[in-house]
C-alpha cells in the first residue's frame, strides 16, 4: 500500500464537506473492514473510518454501495483502481482523512470509465475528478509513471461486440482462422452465486496452440481473464447454465489492444477442433 508518514499531518475538512455531502466534523470511529468488502482486503491496513469519504454512515450502507464496484476492481482496469476506491469507501484509520489526488482519479477514470460503459453504466457524478485535490496538496498520489517504468506494459482488453459462437466448422477452416490471428486460448467457464447474490464466474484458462509473439503464456492467460470480465455480456452468453462449458477463444493483439475475433464451442467429442489443434504444430500458413 502507498501510505506514507507524511500523510498524517494534513486535513481536508472543508473540501470533504463539499465533496461528500456530510460534515467531516461529525464523530467518526475506527472499525474493522468487513469480510464482505473483498476489494479492500490485503491493501495494507485492516481498519477503516466510519462515516467514510462517500458519506456512508452505517456499515450496511458501505457494504451495499461498495459491492457494486467489486466487479470493476476484478477487471484490473487500472493498477490503482483498488487504491482509489478503497481510499473513499474504506479510508485508512488515521487521525485525519486522506483523500485521493485528482491525478489518481483522472488516471483511474480514463482506464475504467470505458469498462463501466461496456456494462451499461456511466462514471458517477460522486466521483467527478474535479472534486478531488490537486497534487500540490497532501493527498494520495497516483504512481502511474513509476508503474510504467517498473512493470512491463501489456496490451489491454477492450469492450467489443461479442463474436459469434461457432458450433459447426471444419478443421481446415479453423486452421485458416489460426493463421489470421496470434493467440488461441482454451477456456473453461462456469458460474456461481456469491453470498451477496451477485453473479460471478469461475474462469479457467489454459494457453494452447498459440503464436505468442512477445507475450508469455501467463500474460496471455491474464489478459483473456480480464477480457472475459470486461466483456461480461459475452461471458454471460457463454455460461447459460451452471454446467461448465469449454470454448476456444481466438484473436489478435493490435496497437496495444486485445481483441477476440472468433469463439468455438469445444464439445467433448469435437473431432474437428481436436484435429485442427493437432495439425497446427506442422501447419504452414499461406
UniProtKB/TrEMBL annotation:
Pfam families linked: Fz (PF01392)
NTR domain sequence ranges: 159-285
GO cellular component terms given for this protein: extracellular space
Main localization (coarse): secreted
GO molecular-function terms, A-Z: Wnt-protein binding
PROSITE patterns in UniProt: FZ (PS50038), NTR (PS50189)
GO biological process, one term: non-canonical Wnt signaling pathway
InterPro entries the UniProt entry points to: Frizzled/SFRP (IPR015526), Frizzled_dom (IPR020067), Frizzled_dom_sf (IPR036790), Netrin_domain (IPR001134), Sizzled_CRD (IPR041772)
FZ domain: residues covered: 25-142
Family of this protein: Belongs to the secreted frizzled-related protein (sFRP) family.
Residues annotated as signal peptide: 1-21
Protein name in UniProt: Secreted frizzled-related protein 2-like
Key words of the record: Developmental protein, Differentiation, Disulfide bond, Secreted, Signal, Wnt signaling pathway
Cystines in this chain: 40-86, 105-129
Entry's localization field: Secreted
Gene: LOC106495914
Amino acid at each position: 500500500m502507498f501510505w506514507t508518514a507524511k500523510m498524517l499531518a494534513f486535513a481536508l475538512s472543508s473540501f470533504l464537506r463539499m465533496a461528500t455531502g456530510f460534515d467531516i466534523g461529525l464523530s467518526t470511529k475506527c472499525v474493522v473492514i468487513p469480510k464482505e468488502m473483498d476489494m479492500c482486503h490485503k491493501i495494507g491496513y485492516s481498519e477503516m473510518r466510519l462515516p467514510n469519504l462517500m458519506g456512508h454512515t452505517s456499515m450496511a450502507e458501505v457494504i451495499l454501495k461498495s459491492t457494486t464496484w467489486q466487479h470493476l476492481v476484478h477487471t484490473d482496469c487500472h493498477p490503482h483502481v483498488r487504491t482509489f476506491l478503497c481510499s473513499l469507501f474504506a479510508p485508512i484509520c488515521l487521525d485525519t482523512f486522506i483523500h485521493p489526488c485528482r491525478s489518481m482519479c483522472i488516471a483511474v477514470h480514463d482506464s475504467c470509465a470505458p469498462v463501466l460503459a461496456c456494462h451499461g453504466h456511466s462514471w458517477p457524478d460522486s466521483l467527478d475528478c474535479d472534486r478531488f485535490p490537486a497534487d500540490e496538496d497532501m493527498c494520495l498520489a497516483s504512481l502511474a509513471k513509476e508503474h510504467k517504468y517498473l512493470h512491463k506494459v501489456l496490451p489491454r482488453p477492450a469492450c467489443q461486440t461479442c463474436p459469434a459462437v461457432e458450433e459447426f466448422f471444419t478443421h481446415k477452416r479453423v486452421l485458416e482462422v489460426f493463421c489470421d490471428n496470434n493467440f488461441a486460448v482454451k477456456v473453461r467457464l462456469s458460474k456461481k452465486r456469491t453470498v451477496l447474490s451477485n453473479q460471478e464466474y469461475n474462469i479457467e484458462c489454459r494457453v494452447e496452440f498459440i503464436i505468442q509473439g512477445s507475450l508469455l503464456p501467463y500474460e496471455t492467460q491474464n489478459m483473456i481473464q480480464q477480457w472475459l470480465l470486461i466483456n461480461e455480456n459475452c461471458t454471460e452468453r457463454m455460461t447459460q447454465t451452471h454446467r461448465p462449458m469449454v470454448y476456444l477463444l481466438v484473436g489478435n493483439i493490435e496497437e496495444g489492444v486485445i481483441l477476440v475475433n472468433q469463439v468455438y464451442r469445444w464439445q467433448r467429442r469435437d473431432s474437428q477442433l481436436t484435429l485442427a489443434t493437432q495439425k497446427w504444430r506442422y501447419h504452414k500458413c499461406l
